[in-house]
Amino acid sequence: MKRFRNILLYGKKKADIQASLELAEFIARKNDARLTVVDVISEELNYYSQMMSVYQKTLHLKDMVFENRLTELRHLTGALKNKGLDISANVFVGTPFLELIKEVIRGKYDLLIVTAEGKSEFKDMLFGTTTMHLMRKCPCPVWALKPGEQTHFKQILAAVDPDPSQEENRKLNIKILELASSLAILQKSELHVLHAWDVPKRYLDFLRNDLEKITGNAQNMHKSWLGALLEKHTVSIKESQTHLIKGDPGIEIPRYANEKGIDLIVMGTVSRTGIAGLLMGNTAEKILFRVDCAVMAVKPEGFESPVSAD
User: Of 21, 38, 4, nearest to 83 (Cα)?
Assistant: First the structure.
């Protein structure tokens, strides 16, 4: 089934764009989708352009950088356009995450592919400020790749929370499984489904005398929830690739992914603040701070971004 019709690809470095463009082309062709490659130039160039124009009236730094970058992107995409791919390039000026979200809304994109900022000696986290803003506030799925990421993902992990009492969770789980299984079929990848659960700490003092019994009952309940979810899913998933793990999901999901060499996690980002789009759920935040692989962050149905297209 074709999942995407309109894909937006964002990158700063030429090497990252070249790596992610191969993946974006593959996904676009398999889905008969339109692909747009963009970059965002910082507004600080306005200041420097004004400073330099005092001495050289004909020099417009921002315009020069804009045109040079647009020429570079058109050069990168030109060969694919000549091979029949519906592809274009554009450059915006402003704050990257804001301009990208505005473009997603304006253009009605259904997938945004970005390259994560990457780890540095000062920051041991794969996803930097721009990527985190996008995962929190972008209305369409955000696929964040590792710098220099290969185009093939051997193992894909769908992280789900099948609690049937949450209607929002039910719809989001279906969306996660559909996207993860579609990508696994396209890439001939091994699909894993994981549900991590735990007894809330606030209940432990009250349950201490019957903790073993309560924990066993809770495990059986979560197992039945996961089974019911998978029964409704159209793609067959082997029992050996279905995982029920006791523990904090924010810790257990990245631990499993790192230990098993998962290449891509498809997961939901659910705000529980009551303020649409401002924060992800605590579990999603914990996972993103700990993983070292690509992530596709999926929003629940009806999600409204706090960023407007205006």
Answer: 21
DSSP character for 92? E
What is the b/e burial string over 115-152, where b = at least 16 CB atoms within 10 angstroms of the residue's CB? bbbbeeeeeebbbeebbbbbbbbbbbbbbbbbbebeee
Place of tokens 């009250």: 206
In the predicted model, what is the mean pLDDT of residues 249-267?
95
Q: What global pTM score does this model have? A: 0.87
pLDDT surpasses 90 at 146:
no
Residue 107, SS3 per DSSP = helix
pLDDT in tens, 43-102: 655 544 454 554 444 446 667 888 888 999 999 999 999 999 999 999 999 999 999 999
Q: Which residues contact 253 (CB under 8 A, 6 or more apart)?
A: 157, 159, 194, 196, 265, 267, 283, 287, 291
Q: Say how far apart CA 151 and CA 57 lie, in whole Å.
A: 46
* Bridge partners (DSSP) listed for residue 159: 194
pLDDT tens for residues 87-140? Answer: 999 999 999 999 999 999 999 999 999 988 765 444 566 788 899 999 989 999
